[in-house]
Amino acid sequence: MQISFAPARNAASGASWVVAAYDGGALSAAASRADKAAGGALTRALKVSRFKAKPGEMLEVLAPAGVPASRIILVGLGKPEALDAKGLEVIGAKIVARLHQLGETDAVLEVETQTGKSGGKVKTPMAAAHLAFGARLRAYRFEHYRTRNLEEYEKRLANLVMVTSDVAAAKKNYAALSAVADGVVLARDLVNEPPNILYPAEFARRVKALSKSGLKVEVLGEAEMKKMGFGALLGVGQGSMRESQLVVMQWNGLPKNKKTQPIAFVGKGVCFDSGGLSLKPGAAMMGMKGDMGGAAAVTGTMLVLATRKARVHAVGVIGLVENMPDGGAIRPDDVLKSLSGQMIEVLNTDAEGRLVLADALTYTQRRFKPKFVIDLATLTGAIVQALGFEHAGVFSNDDKLTDNLVQAGRETGERVWRLPLDPAYDKMIRSKIADVKNIGGANSGSITAAQFLNRFIDDGMAWAHLDIAGVAWQDGEQRPMIPSWGTGWGVHLLNRLVRDNYE
Ligand code: BES
Ligand code: MN
Ligand code: ZN
Question: Structure pTM?
Answer without folding.
Answer: 0.97
